[in-house]
UniProtKB/TrEMBL annotation:
<feature type="active site" description="For Fru-6P isomerization activity">
    <location>
        <position position="605"/>
    </location>
</feature>
<dbReference type="InterPro" id="IPR029055">
    <property type="entry name" value="Ntn_hydrolases_N"/>
</dbReference>
<dbReference type="InterPro" id="IPR046348">
    <property type="entry name" value="SIS_dom_sf"/>
</dbReference>
<keyword id="KW-0032">Aminotransferase</keyword>
<feature type="domain" description="SIS">
    <location>
        <begin position="459"/>
        <end position="600"/>
    </location>
</feature>
<dbReference type="GO" id="GO:0005975">
    <property type="term" value="P:carbohydrate metabolic process"/>
</dbReference>
<dbReference type="InterPro" id="IPR001347">
    <property type="entry name" value="SIS_dom"/>
</dbReference>
<feature type="active site" description="Nucleophile; for GATase activity">
    <location>
        <position position="2"/>
    </location>
</feature>
<dbReference type="InterPro" id="IPR035490">
    <property type="entry name" value="GlmS/FrlB_SIS"/>
</dbReference>
<dbReference type="InterPro" id="IPR017932">
    <property type="entry name" value="GATase_2_dom"/>
</dbReference>
<comment type="function">
    <text>Catalyzes the first step in hexosamine metabolism, converting fructose-6P into glucosamine-6P using glutamine as a nitrogen source.</text>
</comment>
<dbReference type="Pfam" id="PF13522">
    <property type="entry name" value="GATase_6"/>
</dbReference>
<feature type="domain" description="Glutamine amidotransferase type-2">
    <location>
        <begin position="2"/>
        <end position="219"/>
    </location>
</feature>
<dbReference type="GO" id="GO:0046349">
    <property type="term" value="P:amino sugar biosynthetic process"/>
</dbReference>
<dbReference type="GO" id="GO:0097367">
    <property type="term" value="F:carbohydrate derivative binding"/>
</dbReference>
<keyword id="KW-0808">Transferase</keyword>
<keyword id="KW-0963">Cytoplasm</keyword>
Amino acid sequence: MCGIVGAIAERNVVEILLEGLKRLEYRGYDSAGVALLDGEGNLTRTRRTGKVKELADALHTHPSKGNIGIAHTRWATHGGVTEANAHPHFSSDRIAVVHNGIIENYQRLRSELAAKGYGFDSDTDTESIAHQVHYELDQGADLLQAVHNAVKKFEGAYGTVIIDKNDPERMIVARSGSPLVIGFGIGENFIASDQMALLPVTRRFMYLEEGDVAEVTRTNVTVYDQDGQIVQRDIVESDIEHDAGDKAGYRHYMLKEIHEQPTVVRNCLQGRLGEHGISPNIFGQDADSILDNIKHVQIVACGTSYHSGMTAKYWLEQYANVSCNVEIASEFRYRKSFVHPNSLLVTISQSGETADTLAALRLAKSLGYSSSLTICNVPGSSLVRESDLAFMTLAGAEIGVASTKAFTTQLTGFLMLTLALGKHNGMSETDHKAIVDGLHSLPSKLEETLSLTQGIKDLAEEFADKHHSLFLGRGDQYPIAMEGALKLKEISYIHAEAYASGELKHGPLALIDDEMPVIVVAPNNELLEKLKSNVEEVRARGGIMYVFADKEAHFQSDNTMRVINVPHCSAAIAPIIYTLPLQLLSYYVAIIKGTDVDQPRNLAKSVTVE
Ligand code: HGA
């Protein structure tokens, strides 16, 4: 969340910053701003509420230039969405700061700094960074030392870039809890929250680590660790192949990403799944010998990733004979939990920077887990670097805020983890073969499922005027119903709840009427008859149902039930297959409602704040 870009060059950096912000807009889009320092020592600032386009228009109408600049696209945590709260924040027109994270002790810092005469113009926590650095400068420190001193006073999380009008040859950056990457150019250098922002200008990157402070000049980067010692951090060459910046002819990134699923799932399987099973060590170096001893899995994740973890619990316990708990990261990190012997901690995150999940991993390291594995989509991210084992989902950049292909590739990874753990825990030959065969058929089944698009478009019309909805599933389709409900909430703003359908009679049946559409996920599995009884319970109370069902489940459309036949698939991959129609349903409902599909209100991707 919140996107930061900074550049120091001989040329004017405005367009580099604007392009970077556009590429980071998925991280926040309530306001944006840029501060520029030119060769004559002029520090200027332009800020706008709304999207990056508003800022770009303003800069084209009133051009500004500079060879050092910092820019920011905001997802507000402290202080409303106003121009005054948009970053960069200044201290006395001298210090400019952009920040991703939350300074938790900002109120105390604010009172102290205000008492010392530093005037506040915003309601943000961020402004206290600018004034604290200014205060340290006023005490005689140079900019680098001032930042070293200032960060010692901050509690909470920050990825921050600071420039000083009186020190125009460098930017100082600091990281604690929020990601920052330095990009190396020729005679120019850059900084961003995500390498994606800098791909038009460089492919050489250095990730800062926790507690790092770095001095970035046009020709040099010097990194100091949390003890103030100079350290070398690796420079990596990015191998991101395609530039995710375009929609490839689709109207929205989300639609493009839904349609990419057959391809990315194929990529995710390639080289990892052989004819008769998975290849060795697909979860990382020495992974197989680590996994051999695992008897319990603890999964920790948030949002959509949490739903993939919930699905995995069904698989791991049913097929691999390994016990499994799943917990929301923001809960796990703040409670004392029980660690089973020989436990594997699995974190899941698209970005690998999800603040709560990262904190959970760090906490778990002191709790006695045998090992940690992350299932993640971003190479080099904090979760990947800090976990013992990593499984990259290879979904490619996901820009739509509502996650789609990251989810289905996570599930694909979990089916392979089920195979890996099942090997030493008595998985039956039949189950092993069923999963392997299911995975082989997965890309083509996903393609087949996308052909439901037209029928789902028609169906979406019936949801546009609804305010509430209910999603039902059983067994490993229950988390898929939860994910379907989350998608609908996220992008169409229709209130949606998911229930394990056996729970209906314990309360939610009271909600049923003809204004509450009920979406049912019904593959042809061993729970089908039970599910059919639940469907009858809804019908008897006048509910209107939309049933996504296997043809062989023999549901009939009538005036209370509309049936959408989903291609027949094996039980092991059914949760992945049934995800697609629910994604499409949410997408087309959102289109009819005219919401901002890729950047839904109040949300942002890569949740780097608590
Ligand atoms: N706390 C700052 C930055 C917010 C942020 O990092 N969001 O992801 C603010 O509210 O402006």
